[in-house]
User: Fold this.
Amino acid sequence: MNEQPRATSVVVAGVGAYLPQRILTNKELAQDLETDDAWIRTRTGIRQRHIADPEESTSDLALKASERALTAARCSAQQIDAIVLATTTPENTFPATAARLQQKLGVGKPVPAYDVQAVCAGFVFALHSAWNMIRLQQARRVLVVGAEIYSRSIIDWTDRSTCVLFGDGAGAFVLEAQEKTKEKTQEKTQEKTTSATQRGILDIMLATDGGFYEQLYVDGGAGSSDRVGHLKMQGNVVFREAIDKMSQSVALLLARNGLSVQDIAWLVPHQANSRIMSGVARKLGIEEARVVSTVEDHGNISAATIPAALDHACKQGSVKKGDLVALTAMGGGFAWGGALIRW
Ligand code: COA
Assistant:
């Protein structure tokens, strides 16, 4: 936890998401693959995933999610001071997809715009970067985006143990500086701000353990081969470690902020597999009714799962102002992290 006094709170001013129109159901997948709807649903909870059109690129998905987040935040692209975009499937090897997004949004001025690569934990890493930029008062408004097109090249559509899990999509937050609200104590002379009342991001933790590099990776890339490569995964190890690391990250954040599991209104875990999400909730002692879930309809959209799930929850009216929301994700690396946000 940062011990320094914080001049401003960093609040989520707007959330947006975009899922491509084309839906690929389990039944359709089973036409060309030795699998079936019952197996996929029972083992993963996934019913369908969205697939980008051939003309759609990663920045197109990011653009639509960003425009929706900006509208929700009631601000224009010109009011953005930075863009941090998490992706594992960038538009081109370089420049950053964030640069293309900046161009398409019409930000109209030079601002820092860069990509973050922490695979399925990417959005939490991007959030951390944006949070600190605002806390350091180097920006007032930062657009944080997760955008992925797994379907186009890194998925091996003949590998039934991985291809059924993933989909395409994007989600975005607009983070904004807000003056801290101050509560008068009974003495009226002192003022206090506490994690029990303060809105905005309370804390974020990040970690990577490269010892798990080979358990979830893509076997190609610009620095090692002449091909993009395909996703390879040791599913059972990922499954076990994801439950442990995601639940531990939330427990650590609660402990170092003097909060308990009962304080959490909504848990928003990375949407990879409903059984992993249930395992995290069970370990933490949070009932399923407080877990936001979109994996059934979105599949795993990697860095985009958390903002897309939160967009869904906000639209449904389940996540409300003042709710304590816990985010957590784990992916390739392994990289993992969590965040506590007072909505
Ligand atoms: N359809 C039908 N059968 C399939 C299948 C599919 N799509 N995929 C694998 N199988 C088969 C396997 O070949 C295996 O057959 P075998 O026993 O004859 O060898 C059998 O199902 C059981 O495989 P297993 O790997 O033990 O299944 P599981 O219950 O562990 O579930 C995953 C597999 C992939 C769903 C699970 O390990 C998982 O979700 N892991 C985490 C994946 C993840 O979330 N990755 C991204 C994290 S960011």
User: Anything to note?
Assistant: Residues 1-6, 187-192 have pLDDT under 50 and may be disordered.
